[in-house]
Design brief:
- By secondary structure, the protein is α/β, with parallel strands linked by helices.
- The protein has a single domain, classed as Alpha-Beta Complex (Spore Coat Polysaccharide Biosynthesis Protein SpsA, Chain A), CATH 3.90.550.
- About 40% of the residues lie in helices and about 20% in strands.
- The protein contains ten helices and eight strands.
- Strands 3-2-1-4-7-6-8-5 form an eight-stranded mixed sheet, with helices on both faces.
- Strand 1, helix 1 and strand 2 form a beta-alpha-beta unit.
- The protein is globular, with a radius of gyration of 18 Å.
Length: about 260
Amino acid sequence: MNEGLVSIIIPTLNEEKYLPKLLKSISEQTYKNYEIIVADAGSIDNTVSIANDYGAIVVKGGKPAVGRNNGTKVSRGEYLIFLDADVILPKDFLSKAIQDFDYHYYEVATFSFEPISKLKIDKILFKIANILVRRTRKLYPLAPGFCIMSTRRLFRRIGGFDETLYLAEDHDFVRRASKLAKFGIIKETKVEVSVRRLEKEGRVNLVRKYFQAEIYRALKGKIDKEILEYEFGKFQNTSNMSEFEKFLERILRFLIRD
């Protein structure tokens, strides 16, 4: 283990549109002791060549849990940071994340997040999501997979991400981790996240899906079967909303507009 080294692990599948923005923001970090590991699930676009251009280590990926676990296997850092390809980091992200993480003696943490969007509705939805993560931190830990930080030792203790899960492997990870170590929310920095999933599935539809998934987890436990439609790496497709969902989307955007 390399003391102070941050291993940034990114699962990908056809991310040539978003990955360059993330990798550029990493290259501009004030904290330079990091390595980038891209776990690719068989991209047919330029994702792998882009990762190579930025000096990333590229390994075989799969679904997000598989990619994160495979990336960790070749990593060398004391700190592990799991990001999705469609996030962007402020220049002092790593330095502030490590400082806050160590100061509070966290071993697993998530971050505040903001939408890469000018729409008021997106800002409101993200604000609600941030509040939910903060309010449930002690009783029902939640953490989106696009921004999770962990120590290597804790990752090993809990066996990494559960690859048998169909959904919510990120929340499952922090739930298991928080039983053994201190879980927190990094307040000194944040990540910016694209709203591509909101745009593809619709805001009403996606909120409904997340709500259903959490109700299922609360009542029955892990989501290890297909209870909801989920597609990894297919954000370039047109919206799969029904006409009714599209109607609700238009109404919601009209009611909550700038």
